[in-house]
Automatic annotation (TrEMBL):
Residues 42-76 have a biased composition (Low complexity). Residues 31-41 have a biased composition (Polar residues). The lineage of its organism: Bacteria, Pseudomonadati, Bacteroidota, Cytophagia, Cytophagales. The keyword Signal applies. Keywords: Signal. Residues 1-19 form the signal peptide. Pfam families: OMP_b-brl_2 (PF13568). This is Outer membrane beta-barrel protein. Residues 98-262 form the Outer membrane protein beta-barrel domain. Residues 25-95 are annotated as: Disordered. It comes from Spirosoma profusum.
């Protein structure tokens, strides 16, 4: 029984000591210096609460310290609306190109001018000493057609034209003049600006003799008579070519041209020739 009591006492004593130790750890006893510090802090808080309210800022700045320097006032920023529409890129307007107008492929007009003609293939010396072959003046005029583009075209014409020559000896002469229907068909090439173009042309030409006259002047007296065309060949052919300038004027084009025609197809082996200077006017038909 005695040993059992001792054993029980040994078991109870350690547990009691550990419990006291835990209690002391949870509630430490403040020392004298710590208590004095706590009292001073409490008295400082009480004195602070008892102090009167601070003086106004103006009085405080005047009596206690200099007033602070004025700070620059920032400019207010513009307030953008919340629903400000965003700038949309401006769509470029499509460039309006001029509509190309198809130029007419067919033009028609007139041509009028003068001829200076002669006849080749004639032995003037066989006629007589001192006889000279001279050119005579005439005219031409008629219808002109032009088919094709501005650069290259075909130009047929139907003209009334005069060819001839004169054998002169002093003041006396023998003159022959034919009235012809002349039909040249020319290939024409043009170049330059739309309002001012230069051109060259060349092609075959055919003629038909309508009538003719023989005029004689001798000893101050003159006479003329009609040629009997039934006894002569009326058809002739040859070549013709020239150059000129075309000027835009109104709805059409003015033509200024120099041309030379050379006929070779008659039976008596003579060669009627004519230098022509003319002006004309062509008007486009359709296509505009």
């Amino acid at each position: 029984m005695k040993y059992n009591f001792l054993i029980l006492a040994l078991l109870v004593v350690p547990f009691g000591g550990s419990a006291q130790t835990r209690t002391a750890a949870r509630k430490p006893v403040a020392s004298a210096s710590q208590k004095a510090t706590i009292r001073s802090q409490a008295s400082g808080a009480t004195s602070t609460a008892a102090k009167p309210a601070p003086a106004p800022a103006s009085t405080r700045f005047t009596t206690e310290q200099p007033a602070p320097q004025a700070q620059p006032v920032a400019e207010p920023k513009a307030v953008e609306p919340a629903n400000k529409p965003t700038a949309q890129p401006v769509a470029e307007r499509p460039q309006v190109r001029p509509v190309a107008v198809a130029e007419s492929k067919f033009r028609i007009g007139v041509r009028l001018g003068g001829n200076s003609s002669t006849i080749g293939g004639t032995d003037v010396a066989a006629v007589g000493a001192g006889v000279q072959l001279e050119r005579i003046m005439g005219f031409h005029g008629g219808l002109v057609m032009n088919i094709g583009g501005p650069g290259f075209s075909v130009q047929p014409e139907i003209l009334f034209s005069q060819y001839g020559a004169r054998l002169a000896l002093g003041s006396d002469y023998l003159q022959i003049k034919y009235n012809l229907v002349e039909v040249p068909v020319l290939l024409k090439a043009s170049f330059g600006q739309p309002n001012l173009r230069f051109f060259v042309n060349a092609g075959p030409v055919g003629t038909y003799a309508v009538s003719g006259t023989v005029s004689v002047r001798e000893g101050g007296q003159s006479d003329s008579q009609t040629i009997d065309m039934s006894q002569q060949g009326r058809f002739n052919y040859g070549v013709s070519g020239g150059a000129g300038v075309a000027l835009k004027a109104g709805p059409g084009t003015v033509l200024l041209e120099g041309r030379y025609s050379y006929l070779v197809g008659n039976e008596d082996k003579t060669t009627p020739q004519a230098a022509m200077l003319s002006f004309g006017y062509l008007i486009p038909m359709g296509g505009r």
